[in-house]
Specification:
membrane; Pet100; transmembrane; single chain; 4 helices; mainly alpha
Length: about 110
């Protein structure tokens, strides 16, 4: 019984493909090999084509990195500004300082 199914399947296969077996096999190989070959050719680092394309056409362009802030220098400048502010406030004898309703300077924390 199974032998009959095999013969029927073979006849059906021969009717549908017939002499086009070579053509269909070639088309399948091309449909598979062409994209796989392109991925290998452009994606491998052997030729550097993908890297060159990415460098020429960046998706996100970041601005150049700013120089790093020296936090110690920033603290020294802040201390100097506070000292100058205190000197100016002491010269004004407290008349020009801004105070809140509680009587404390609103700029001090």
């Amino acid at each position: 019984m199974l032998g009959g199914v095999g013969r029927v399947a073979r006849r059906l296969f021969d009717k549908t493909l017939g002499k086009r077996k070579v053509l269909e096999s070639t088309k399948f190989f091309i449909y598979f090999a062409f994209p796989a070959g392109m991925v290998y050719f452009f994606g491998s680092s052997r030729y550097g084509l993908l890297d060159a394309f990415i460098e020429r056409h960046p998706y996100i362009v970041y601005p150049p990195e700013a120089p790093r802030i020296d936090h110690d220098q920033l603290r020294l400048e802040l201390k100097e500004l506070r000292r100058q502010k205190e000197l100016a406030a002491s010269e004004n004898k407290g008349g020009a300082t801004s105070t809140t309703s509680s009587g404390t300077n609103k700029w001090e924390h």
